Amino acid sequence: xxxxxxxxxxxxxxxxxxxxxxxxxxxxxxxxxxxxxxxxxxxxxxxxxxxxxxxxxxxxxxxxxxxxxxxxxxxxxxxxxxxxxxxxxxxxxxxxxxxxxxxxxxxxxxxxxxxxxxxxxxxxxxxxxxxxxxxxxxxxxxxxxxxxxxxxxxxxxxxxxxxxxxxxxxxxxxxxxxxxxxxxxxxxxxxxxxxxxxxxxxxxxxxxxxxxxxxxxxxxxxxxxxxxxxxxxxxxxxxxxxxxxxxxxxxxxxxxxxxxxxxxxxxxxxxxxxxxxxxxxxxxxxxxxxxxxxxxxxxxxxxxxxxxxxxxxxxxxxxxxxxxxxxxxxxxxxxxxxxxxxxxxxxxxxxxxxxxxxxxxxxxxxxxxxxxxxxxxxxxxxxxxxxxxxxxxxxxxxxxxxxxxxxxxxxxxxxxxxxxxxxxxxxxxxxxxxxxxxxxxxxxxxx
Length: 447
What we know:
The chain has 16 helices and 17 strands. It is an alpha/beta fold. It has three domains: 5-57, Electron transport complex subunit B, putative Fe-S cluster (3-methyladenine DNA Glycosylase II, Chain A, domain 3), CATH 1.10.15; 64-312, Dihydropteroate synthase-like (TIM Barrel, Alpha-Beta Barrel); 325-442, 3-Layer(aba) Sandwich (Rossmann fold), CATH 3.40.50.11600. An eight-stranded parallel sheet has the order 10-9-8-7-6-3-12-11. It has a three-stranded mixed sheet with strand order 13-15-14, sandwiched between helices. Strand 9, helix 8 and strand 10 form a beta-alpha-beta unit. Helix 1 (5-11) crosses helix 2 and helix 6 packs parallel to helix 7.
C-alpha cells in the first residue's frame, strides 16, 4: 500500500528549506503522497529514506521504457485521469505490425516506413516509435531472421509470441535492444518472466479482463519484475475502451497497484478497414493506451494520429514556445525589414514560414510572451509597448540594420503610438493581421 503523507513526512529531513518548490517538508510529503511531486526534488533525502519511499514516490502508473538509447519511447508514468487536472506525461507509442510470414519485400517496405514517415511540426519531429514483430509461422529460425532485419529500422522492438521458445529465439538476435516481450499469460508466465528477468526486458501480460491481469502482475512483481505492460485481451472497440478506463481508474483513483502499469491495444485486430482502424487508434490515444499497434503505417492516417498525440500530451499550462531572440530569414542585410512577433511556437512557425516563402530577406524578432499568441499576450499585458521597446533596444537588432523601421502585427496596432514614444526616431509600421498576407506586404517594403 502507498504511504500516507504523514508517513512520508517522518522519513524526510525536515529542513523546511524550500528547495523542492514548496515551503515545508510537510507540504512536500503531501504532494508526494498525491503524486504531485517527485522524490528527486528533495536534495537532502538520505539513501535509506529513498529506499523506504520508493513506493510512495512512484507514480500510480509506473513508467516503462521500450528499448535503449535516448530516443527509446517511455510509456506510462501517468498521474491524472484528465489532462486539465495537471497534464498527461508520456504520449502513446505507435507500432507497425510485421509478421514473419510476410514476403521479404513487404517486410522491407514496412521497415522503411519507420524511417521515412517522419514529420516536422512546430519545431518537433513527429515519428512512430515501435515495430511489433509477430511470430505467425511458429518457426524459431524465421522469427530470429525477422528480428535481425528489424534491428536496423530505427524503431524499438516488440517481440510477439506466446511460445517462450520463439521469444527466446527472438531475444537471441535482439536482446541488446531490450525489446518488449509479448506476452506472458497464465500458461507461460514463469518461463516468459524468466526471459524478461534474465535479459532485463519489459514484459507484456495478457489476460481476459482486468481481474486476470491483476493476478498475473502480482506474481510478476513478487518475482521482482516491475517493467510491465497490460493487455486486457479485449478485441472489440467497446470492451477495449471499457477496460482502458477501468484499469486507469483503478490505478489512479483506487491506488490499486496491480493495475498500475501502462497498457497495449490492438486496433490492427479490431477491424479490416484502415480508416476505421485510424479512428479507433485516435480514441486510444485519448483514453488511455500506452502502446497502439497498427496493421500498417499510412501517411494520411499516421500524421493526424501523431499530431493528436502531440496536442494531447503537451502541458496545458505551458504552451509550446520558441526561444526569444533575433531570427535571420533568407539571409537579411542591413536594409532588410524588421518584424516582431510572440514566442508561441505555432505563431513563430507560421510567420517565419510566410517570410521564407516571400523570398524577402528579413529579420524576425521573437519576444518571450510565455508561449502566448500575439493577441492573447497583448490582452494579458505581456506584449505591450513598454515591454516590446526595451527588448528591441537590448536584443542587438539596432546594430544589424541602418534603418529605424519596425513592423508590428496588425493586432498590435493600438501599441504603435506608444512604441513611437518608447523608441524615439523609429517608425512603427502596422503589418497584416494574418500571416498569409505577409508575403504581399513585404513586397512593398522600402528601407
